[in-house]
């Protein structure tokens, strides 16, 4: 069983996705926010590529439990109910709701992962739980697909990939391909100062400037959630061992 | 002035290449071998994508100084004069020669870099010289394009990217994008054991098995050559400050 890491969506090869267990990472902030939303009792998240798609889908569904969430340029989309801050997705707001979501990088990464056998979503806040679920399922190669930032390498996703590799290694017996080795090494080197890495990253610095410092702090808390989001048939829900 | 790193050919975006100074890295072994060949007195290297293209070009050129070099599956191509081992490219064999070369990853990476303002080729053996040449040229964004191994992240190229970032930073004033930060961090962590990293990498391990251990040793020697290969108009030659 192998683990490899693709640092951006565009770098992912078909061979690296087809039939694999793919862990999609968009730590700032889509996969963090999705984990937080599910943990807060949201029923499901429907990732879509464009804001127009989201608005059309809400009309088509005609379900009053539907909320629209997501960002462009890191800020809430006009007409949407929620932005892309995990701190907005509280039980008071999202419990029992279905959220149609579109973000710049994260939802594209989730869609890119569809040739996989199983797609789970990971961030720093739930990586240990995701690793445990993966090992619990037994065999198979694992591909970690980093969303990156506008098709560029992103530090926070590579860091999370390294944490995932490190957690998987503790629990299972894997051969690490080069991307996994480098990510693990990076994680090990900076593990005592995760928040600093998030602030140092290009996208983290942009979020800080926009006043999203609390999002960085929240996103940096390794393993605070046990929730494992799974993407299947166009929907993200909580994973349970039977899936 | 920015530095960014693309860990694979497929991850490189047009925006990251157009008009930039691009440093192409294929440490195992194309850019190591090209640096060695130029250092040994080879006049020029003509990178081509396929063995067929190489053979046709030799016929078309009708020049007895032409040699064919390169590999498929890491071994010499049938009918070629040379493989892809830097140790084959000695002054006795390559001095005054023109070499048409095709390799699995490196020559593709060089071709991919063509929208750049300037394309230089780097490996561990000549990275400090390449960094010095780049800083000497003055301004402009720098993109480090790793060849990777069959479109996968490769440890040895990421390591070399990190060495380049580290050398550039010593000499110039650059903003590091996330890929450059991660590569530099990786280089710093493993810098005292470069050969071990080469052996640990997927492609390095394959080369070891094929008996190319001495190539790994040669390739691991940081800064032993002062040669700076430049790719321009389809040819790789020695760079001089006027280029
Ligand atoms: Mg992101
Ligand atoms: Mg290579």
Automatic annotation (TrEMBL), chains A, B:
Its cofactor is Mg(2+). It comes from the Bacteria. InterPro entries: ComB-like (IPR005238), ComB-like_sf (IPR036702). Its EC number is 3.1.3.71. It catalyses: (2R)-O-phospho-3-sulfolactate + H2O = (2R)-3-sulfolactate + phosphate. It is an enzyme of class 3 (hydrolase). GO terms for molecular function: 2-phosphosulfolactate phosphatase activity; magnesium ion binding; sulfopyruvate decarboxylase activity. The keyword Ribosomal protein does not apply. Pfam families: 2-ph_phosp. Gene3D superfamilies: ComB-like (3.90.1560.10). Belongs to the ComB family. This is Probable 2-phosphosulfolactate phosphatase. It comes from Thermanaeromonas toyohensis ToBE. The lineage of its organism: Bacteria, Bacillati, Bacillota, Clostridia, Neomoorellales.
């Amino acid at each position: 069983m192998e683990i490899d890491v693709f640092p951006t969506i565009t770098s992912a090869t078909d061979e690296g996705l087809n039939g694999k267990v793919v862990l999609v990472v968009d730590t700032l902030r889509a996969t963090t926010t999705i984990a937080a939303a599910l943990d807060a009792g949201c029923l499901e998240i429907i990732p879509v590529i464009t804001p127009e798609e989201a608005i059309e889908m809400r009309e088509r569904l005609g379900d009053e439990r539907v909320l629209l969430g997501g960002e462009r340029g890191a800020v809430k989309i006009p007409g949407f109910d929620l932005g892309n801050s995990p701190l907005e997705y509280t039980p008071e707001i999202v419990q029992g709701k279905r959220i149609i979501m579109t973000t710049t990088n994260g939802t594209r990464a989730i869609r890119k992962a569809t040739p996989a056998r199983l797609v789970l979503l990971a961030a720093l806040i739930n990586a240990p739980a995701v690793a445990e679920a993966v090992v619990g399922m037994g065999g198979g190669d694992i591909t970690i697909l980093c969303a990156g930032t506008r098709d560029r390498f992103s530090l926070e996703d590579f860091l999370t990939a390294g944490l995932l590799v490190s957690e998987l290694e503790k629990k299972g017996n894997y051969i690490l391909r080069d991307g996994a080795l480098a990510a693990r090494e990076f994680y090990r080197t900076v593990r005592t100062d995760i928040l600093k890495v998030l602030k140092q990253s290009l996208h983290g610095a942009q979020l800080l400037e926009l006043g999203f410092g609390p999002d960085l702090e929240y996103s940096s808390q390794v393993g605070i959630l046990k929730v494992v989001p799974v993407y299947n048939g166009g929907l993200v829900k909580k994973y349970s061992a039977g899936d």
